Amino acid sequence: MADQNGVDLMNTGNLAIQAKRGRKYAPLNKIEEVKSDKIAVLITRGDQKKAMACLYLEDFLKIIQDIGEVYYEDRTINGPRQERAVNEQSELPNS
User: Fold this and answer.
1) I want to staple 40 with a disulfide (CB 3.0 to 4.6 A). Which of 12, 34, 48, 92 is the partner?
2) Could you report the average pLDDT of every consecutive run of 10 residues in the chain (95 residues)?
3) Are 36 and 63 in contact (CB under 8 A)?
């Protein structure tokens, strides 16, 4: 049961989680129901679909940076991996 801030799961650390389940995935704008200073996450699942977690890009990048992960991209089939740090300057498709 959601609290008045749109948070469905408690004791999740810095995450404020809104959970939605239905025949189809919940619309992404359901994340706006979360009214918290924590990182808003929408977890949604549709019938016979895998569960999906959605969050704002700036929060995703913050998490990636905080845990020290990098994005690896193969430059050659058998060659060494080249690192490219994920940051806000990364190229994103226009949509």
Assistant:
1) 34
2) 76 91 94 93 95 95 75 49 48 52
3) no
